[in-house]
Amino acid sequence: MFDSGVGGLTVARSVLDQLPHEQVLYIGDTANGPYGPRDIAEVRSLALSIMDELVDRGVKLLVIACNTASAAVLHDARERYTLGRGVPVIEVIHPAARTAARVTRNGRVGLIATRGTVDSRAYDDALQAVPGVELFSQACPRFVELAERGVTTGAEVLDVAEEYLAPIKAAGVDTLILGCTHYPLLVGPISYVMGEDVPLVTSSDETAKDVYRALARKNLLRGSDAPEPRHDFRSTGDPEAFSVLARRFLGPEVAAVERIAFASSESGVRVVPSDVSPLPATLQGSA
Ligand code: DGL
């Protein structure tokens, strides 16, 4: 699993809760995050280099625990790893979109996400086939910065939440998708501002169900008689800072975090081989 930083830990938590015998190898790309403001081609390149690394380390399934990366790279990832190397790829956009479609009563669904995810229109595409659903999107870049600093409650978060969420509230949405895996870390203030009548939809639990389904279908579930699972959490940036937040957001499964290094280009953006196909016009269906 990977994310630009600590956000994907919200998905990792659900995976560990639903699949307690599985072993997680998680990379937080904190040296290159946030992904949200980056060009989509850069996010794609960063994501592919991480997934290359994970697949080379022998993972049996990949989870793109990041909406921005899911929007940027899902089609390529399925081609490169699922078709190319037999490794299923699970993402976080369709699980959240299908939950929102089930939950909404008035058909007015709000989306808060990174600039990259909003601009990709991946959620618009995912919800396009659902009759009567209208999407109201708002980019909330400062939420990621706050979560990465460990600031998840207090006046600063509340001020930012009130500012970002005002247009979404004014649109009369009755359901709000937290379309960035960092945002569940700020669920208290977001829910406070939206009010208790607006359910907040996150992708973590539904994504974990997709992980279960994909492993079960391929008969790849790790049995309860297997040795105690050993998880491995890595970051591309400062491992100490990452481990403090990872223990707080995920829990005691995070032991010592080691830094993971990649070869990088002069711009600091890692380069991956050029045998990847061009960006898709729309996202493909979920697993
Ligand atoms: N947590 C990520 C997402 O779901 C990325 C946030 C960022 O790096 O901007 O989009």
UniProtKB/TrEMBL annotation:
GO biological process, one term: regulation of cell shape
Keywords carried by this UniProt record: Cell shape, Cell wall biogenesis/degradation, Isomerase, Peptidoglycan synthesis
Catalytic activity, reaction form: L-glutamate = D-glutamate
The protein's annotated pathway: Cell wall biogenesis; peptidoglycan biosynthesis
InterPro entries: Asp/Glu/hydantoin_racemase (IPR015942), Asp/Glu_race (IPR001920), Asp/Glu_racemase_AS_1 (IPR018187), Asp/Glu_racemase_AS_2 (IPR033134), Glu_race (IPR004391)
Secretion signal, residue range per the UniProt entry: none
Residues that coordinate or bind substrate: 3-4, 35-36, 67-68, 181-182
Active-site residues annotated for this sequence: 66, 180
E.C. numbers: 5.1.1.3
SUPFAM superfamilies hit by this protein: Aspartate/glutamate racemase
A GO molecular-function descriptor: glutamate racemase activity
The organism's place on the tree of life at top rank: Bacteria
Function of the protein: Provides the (R)-glutamate required for cell wall biosynthesis.
Family label: Belongs to the aspartate/glutamate racemases family.
Name recorded for this polypeptide: Glutamate racemase
Source species of the chain: Actinomyces johnsonii F0542
Gene from which this protein is expressed: murI
